[in-house]
Every structure is written in C-alpha cells, then in structure tokens.
Amino acid sequence: MSPSEPTRAGFVLAGGESSRMGTDKAFLEFEGQTLLDRALNTVGAVCDRVAIVGDPLKFARHSEKHAVMADVFRGCGPLGGIHAALTQPAAEFNLMLGVDMPFVSTGLLEFLFTAAAESGSTVTVPHVAKGWQPLCAIYRRDFVPVAEKALQAGNYKIDALFTSVSLRTIDEKELTAAGFLPRIFFNLNTPDDRRAAEGRSR
C-alpha cells in the first residue's frame, strides 16, 4: 500500500429496495436525521474516506461530499455492494455498514478496526446469538475474488463465503466484555422495527 492510500475506508451499503419498510430506508428519519446521514456521520468519524454504495442518481445530492458507486453485479443483494466497494481503490481495512443499523457506534467500529489490525484476517466480523453481522464488518481486498466467484455462480449469501477466507470472529461474549450489547446490531426492515428502535432510543 502506498503512503497516499488510506488505511481505513468506510462504505455505507444503501442499495436495498426497502420493500418491507414501504419507503426508502436511507431517507427514513430517525432521531432528527436520515438513516443515511446518521450512518455517514458514524462511519466518517473513524474512517479516512467514506463512500455510499447504491444508485448514483438516487444519492446524487450526496456526491459532493462522498463518492457514490453502483454495484458491478446488480440485483445481487449486499454481497454485490461489498464486491463493488472492494473493487474501487480500497484501503487496507474496509468497513461495510448497512444503512439500516442506527445503533452502531463509533466505539464499536473502532473496536472492529483494532481487532482487524491485530488479526490480519481477510474478514473481521461479529457473531451474536442472532447470527453473523456481515454488514457491520471489516474486509480486506483479498475478499474480492471470493465474492466475485460467488456472484458469478449466483450464490449471494455472504456468510457462506466465510469458510473460504481467513476469519476473525468476534463473538457475543467478547463484544459484551468490551461493553457492546447484541442489540447494537438492530436493523430496521419494517415499520414495526422503526417503532421498536424509537422506543429503545428514548
């Protein structure tokens, strides 16, 4: 990596269709700001560079401050977004964060970056009782060929690829010991989720 390349890049994955929410989640208001702006601010606090992965037309007004990139493999879900992010001039450590996770904190992201730097693994990812959290994880660039092969084969499940790469798993016990409860990964998919999230934030 050349000195001009950033150590940390952050990518907010905002390419979903939001069909269960009934409105575009990226522009959903939560605690006085949109989920997109909330995610960009959180990621921007810990990364050298921040970009949005989604429709460039939809996010045109954000392009003055942030790069906006479309999926190379379109209609393939979050794996397509991760692949698109990593095929850009990526950093040594690349944070992927789903736009619909309003409780993710800068402290958690710093914790993930530290674990990634110490492990040298291709992917550093939390795992809690509800499962893997691949949309709040750190990826190195050598995840690209694994993702591309899966996308070409029509296999879009991200955690199915974890057996093919070196992995640093951060389990629930480790997260809790560091002060992070599993609810930090709560994501908003439906209006009920939004109401639940608003209740938790009070």
As for the number of domains, it is 1
**Beta-strand percentage?**
15-25%
- Number of E strands: 10
What's the story with the biggest beta sheet? 8 strands, mixed
* Overall mean confidence score, pLDDT: 90
What's the multimeric state? single chain
Which key terms come to mind for this protein?
202 residues, alpha/beta, Spore Coat Polysaccharide Biosynthesis Protein SpsA, Chain A, eight-stranded mixed sheet, two-stranded antiparallel ribbon, globular
Task: Characterize the structure shown.
This protein has 202 residues and is of the alpha/beta class. The protein has one domain (8-201): Alpha-Beta Complex (Spore Coat Polysaccharide Biosynthesis Protein SpsA, Chain A). It is built from six helices and ten strands. The protein has helices at 35-44, 78-87, 106-119, 144-152, 172-177, 191-201; strands spanning 8-13, 29-30, 33-34, 49-53, 67-69, 93-98, 123-128, 131-132, 136-139, 167-171. Strands 1, 4, 5, 6, 7, 8, 9 and 10 form an eight-stranded mixed β-sheet that branches. Helix 2 packs across helix 4. The chain is globular. It starts with 7 loop residues before the first strand and ends with a helix. The mean pLDDT is 90.
